[in-house]
Design goal:
The complex is a heterodimer of chains A (about 140) and B (about 260). Chain A is built from 4 helices and 2 strands, in the order H-H-H-E-E-H. Chain A has about 140 residues and is mainly alpha-helical. Chain A has a two-stranded antiparallel sheet. In chain A, helix 1 (about 5-40) runs antiparallel to helix 2, helix 2 packs antiparallel against helix 3 (about 70-90) and helix 3 (about 70-90) packs antiparallel against helix 4. The longest helix of chain A is centred in the first third of the chain and has 36 residues, at about 5-40. The relative contact order of chain A is 0.10. The model of chain A has no long low-confidence stretch (mean pLDDT about 85). Chain B is α+β, with helices and mostly antiparallel strands. Chain B has 3 helices and 15 strands. Chain B has helices at about 1-30, 110-115, 115-120, and strands at about 35, 40-45, 50-60, 65-75, 80-90, 95-105, 125-135, 140-150, 155-165, 170-180, 190-200, 205-215, 220-230, 235-245, 250-255. In chain B, strands 1, 2, 3 and 6 form a 4-stranded antiparallel β-sheet that branches. In chain B, strands 5-4-7-8 form a 4-stranded antiparallel β-sheet, with no helix packed on it. A 4-stranded antiparallel β-sheet of chain B has the order 12-11-14-15. The longest helix of chain B has 30 residues, at about 1-30. Strand 2 of chain A pairs antiparallel with strand 8 (about 140-150) of chain B.
């Protein structure tokens, strides 16, 4: 089977763009995470949760970039927004966060914060859904190949 | 459709930026909200132990802190609340400093009435401190901490023993009783003690009133002599003790004695 050289070139370019985007995002997020750790100290399991989030988020961004100009871009985009909603609802325990630091216990009610996060992610989810519909519409019209 | 998508895109970008900006500034403000505790002043008067704790609040962040509530609970060994004290500050505006005092009081007279064992047995009390506040008028936050405080009994190892019994004259005999205790508390046991001696039939043989001035970690020892008819002075009986100090009032404490 003869492989189309332009397709290979396109895939290689996409992979390179995705890798670069992932690398830049990884450096930024890890720098931000390290700065937070130095300022806020040790919050135990929550730092592990931040690391997991950063890893999965970067994976989504890389995959979205690699699969750009396909329907999968928008499906993964919607998946990314859903991941943000579900992940933060799980990690923040529905908004009631309790952290133990030695003899001290800190309880924070972050429901308002969680609501803000969920609302913004739902907007993003809606945007991805509309983009997917628009993509299919334009593909049917012959604008996208 | 494209305009809608573009508008949604712009809106989500702006909202994400605003959200992250708020998170960063809220985090910075939280780290710059400080409470410094001063030296506590402890006093006892009229049977009430008072602890005044001065504290300084510094809000160098970007947001106001409201509904600041400091609650201190003193719990006995089994978790029952002995006392609860609260200090409420409606608002700590951003960029402000203020000094307040948190008063904790324990009514020792009521404590020994509800939990008499604290007079005689060493124990420990739990100090539960809860600081609640509303950050940026949106986020309720609560910090709680527990500490253990040792309680030394003011009448530790209290005893009343018959140490002497012998004839006084042809019809009467006398008996000597030693009343002894250790003051394990950090305060003086200062006041009056009354001791009544009864025989095994419940007849009052004699009583003595003594002035108490027992320093912390000191031993009090007092001999009580009673003289009664020989047939009334039985080998066993009871000593009834009554304490009236500035810290507590208690009695009768009944101690059975034998032999001598």
């Amino acid at each position: 089977m003869k492989v189309d050289s332009s397709l290979v070139k396109e895939l290689a370019l996409r992979a390179l763009r995705a890798a670069l985007k992932g690398l830049v995002l990884a450096v930024l997020l890890l720098f931000f995470s390290q700065m937070l750790r130095r300022l806020a100290g040790n919050f135990g399991v929550y730092w592990y949760a931040v690391d997991v989030f950063v890893a999965v988020y970067i994976s989504f961004v890389v995959a979205i970039e690699f699969l750009s100009k396909t329907i999968f871009q928008y499906m993964l985009g919607a998946g990314k927004e859903l991941f943000i909603i579900l992940y933060f609802m799980y990690v923040l325990n529905g908004g009631e966060v309790t952290v133990s630091m030695g003899p001290m216990q800190i309880t924070a009610d972050l429901r308002v914060l969680l609501l803000m996060l969920v609302s913004i992610s739902l907007l993003g989810l809606g945007k991805n859904a509309l983009q997917a519909v628009n993509f299919l519409n334009e593909r049917d019209k012959g604008s996208v190949t | 459709m494209k305009q809608t998508i573009r508008a949604l895109g712009v809106a989500t970008t702006i909202l994400w930026i605003a959200f992250l900006f708020f998170i960063v500034t809220a985090g910075y403000s939280a780290l710059n909200f400080k409470v410094e505790l001063g030296q506590a002043r402890v006093s006892v008067s009229d049977g009430v132990l008072r602890m005044s704790i001065p504290f300084k609040i510094s809000n160098a962040g970007y947001y106001d802190v409201t509904e600041l509530n400091i609650t201190t609970r003193v719990l006995e060994e089994n978790g029952a609340i002995i006392s609860e004290s609260a200090t409420f500050i409606p608002e700590v505006p951003r960029g402000s400093n203020m000094t307040e005092t948190h008063d904790v009081s324990v009514n020792l007279k009521e404590l020994v009435l509800d939990f008499p064992s604290y007079l005689f047995e060493d124990s420990h009390l739990t100090l539960e401190q809860i600081v609640g506040l509303r950050f940026a008028k949106v986020f309720p936050l609560q910090v709680s901490a527990n500490a253990t405080m040792q309680w030394g009994a003011p009448l530790r190892n209290l005893s009343a023993e018959q140490v002497f019994r012998g004839p006084h004259n042809s019809t009467h005999s006398k008996a000597g009783f030693e009343i002894r205790f250790e003051n394990g508390s950090p305060f003086d046991v200062s006041g009056v003690m009354e001791a009544e001696v009864y025989n095994e039939e419940g007849k009052l043989l004699g009583s003595v009133t003594s002035r108490l001035e027992v320093a912390p970690n000191s031993v009090f020892s007092q001999e009580v002599m009673v003289t009664a008819k020989t047939d009334e002075l039985t080998a066993s009986g009871e000593v009834h003790l009554y304490f009236d100090t500035y810290m507590f009032r208690f009695g009768p404490l009944v101690i059975h004695y034998e032999g001598g």
